[in-house]
Amino acid sequence: MDYNIYKLLTPITVGFLFLSLSISIQYLNEKISKLIFLYQLSVLFYLIINYLEFISNDVLYIIFFAKLGHLFLELLAYFWFVFALNYTGYDHLIKIKIRVTLFLLIALNMIIIQTTDIHHLFYLEYNFSSKSGYTVLNADYGPLFWVVVSYSYVLLIAGVVFIVTSYIRGRSFLQVQALLILIGFLLPLVTNIIYVFRLIPTFNKDLSPVAFGITGLFIFISIYRFRLLHFTPLARNIVLHDLQNSIITLSPNFKIIDFNERASSLFHLSDKNLGDNIGKTEVGMFIGNIKNYVNDNNGSKIIKELEGLKYEISVKLLSKDDKTCKAIIINIFDVTDKIELIERLGDSNARLKEMQEQLVHKEKMAALGEISAGIAHEINNPLSFIKSNLKLLNKYLNNIQDGIADIDSRKYNFKEVLELVDESNEGVLRIGEVVYNLLNFSRDNQYEKTFQYNINNGIESTLVLARNQYKYKAIIKLELGDIKTFMTSGNEINQVLLNLLTNAAQAIPDGVNNGLITIKTFNEAGNVVCEISDNGEPISADDIEDIFSPFYTTKDKDVGTGIGLSISRGIIEKEFGGKLFVKESKIKTFRIEIPYKDNSL
């Protein structure tokens, strides 16, 4: 009877194997599919070789096929074990070196089996009998037989243990998948044990090859019904179980096929929702029209509020190599704390920026205080001769009014009177220029309107304010080019220019009669460049790296604060995206580079 059952089931089983192989081959780009394909291929060869042994009447062929069958039994056990590792997510537990070793043991086992006629440790002896018209091999097993067979049993049972473990941890949707796989692989294991240990005396034929082939039927059902190879297997429980994010997996037609515990709790999802269109569930009502996310598919994220908490929603398409969608992953996570932190950081940044602006303004006022004596001198000089001229003019006019003098008399030189008036007007213009530039310089930058600023004009304006700093020490040599303009209020650049000019003047010792400050402007590589050089005391190599650091100064305490250059560099770099540095040259040169590409005329 057992021979007839074997003869009947073998062609049916082979047919199912070819069917499941044809399905698996469509998904060979997926690792799980490759392993199942290799397992099924090993089963197919095992079944064919076993069938050839069954129908052969030549004892040599029977022995050959019997020995070769053990090779494919071990191969299918190996691929089953590796499949179970990957399916359950435990593949990280077995290092690649161990897997290679397990695979090489198959070759060692084959050597043992093929040389059994020499050492008689696999088969002690074997004979043949005729049953139901078939020649049957009857072998007495040697000690190495149990070692070799144990190799296959250990791998098969270990794979079953991994599947059972994940079955216990999984939800019902994935438990059905695992249950089908377990049934498929326990069946051949049980039949092989019955045959090897002769647990049913009336069964003389090993039906495990057929049983292994039947596993193809269960895999076929899993693929067809549950898309085993198309979606995430049991390993997702290990990865996603403790995630605080809500993860929902959809099919290409927007039906729910998977979700984690967090999504179940937040949106009241259960296994009954599997297969439902997402639009009919709470999560669908929360996120809105899923098609809008899919059509966008540019990585954009949307913030929505639920029960007083803010959630970020992102949607990702999982695609095959041919760009067709195979699944849609929705990721929803709580960003309430993140948004609050960003808002607090925004407030802190605003306060920090305000403090920086105050510091810049205070440094500007400090610079004004430093040159205030010179500015007062620049105003007092013209005021003195204006006062003297007005006094003399007043005398002339009083004499004319009293009739003491003859208007036509040569005693009074009217040309001299006109010269006094012109000189007074010139003095008034000088005072006006100083006051105008002083007012412009002292204004708060954040309230100033921007315009197309020409740094040449800024240099000339700054020279007026700083005149008393350099006029007794150095001459100014201007080499101003035809330069590009850029948008700014001008005050911040002028503050930098004043700092550099003041530093240049202070670097030239008192009493020097050949002091020289050279100011150049030109366009270079998309930048407006301004270079300010002086022939005063050089910067030492030790100081050149630190001069832009806050509160670092080589001046006396009552001369400098040590933040002027630091603030100046901050203005150029942060406000204009430019550079301020000391240029390597024979004379000390500070170089300003400001890009004009985006907003120049």
From TrEMBL:
What keywords is this UniProt entry annotated with?
A: Membrane, Phosphoprotein, Transmembrane, Transmembrane helix
Looking at the UniProt entry, the stretches that span the membrane are 6-28, 35-54, 60-88, 100-124, 144-167, 179-201, 207-226
Concerning SUPFAM superfamilies, the annotation shows: ATPase domain of HSP90 chaperone/DNA topoisomerase II/histidine kinase (SSF55874), Homodimeric domain of signal transducing histidine kinase (SSF47384)
- The EC number on file is 2.7.13.3
Q: Which residues form the Histidine kinase domain?
A: 374-598
Coiled-coil annotation: which residues? none
GO molecular function annotations of the record: phosphorelay sensor kinase activity
Show the CDD domains listed in the entry. HisKA (cd00082)
Catalyses which reaction(s): ATP + protein L-histidine = ADP + protein N-phospho-L-histidine
Protein name, UniProt field: histidine kinase
What species was this sequence derived from?
Thiospirochaeta perfilievii
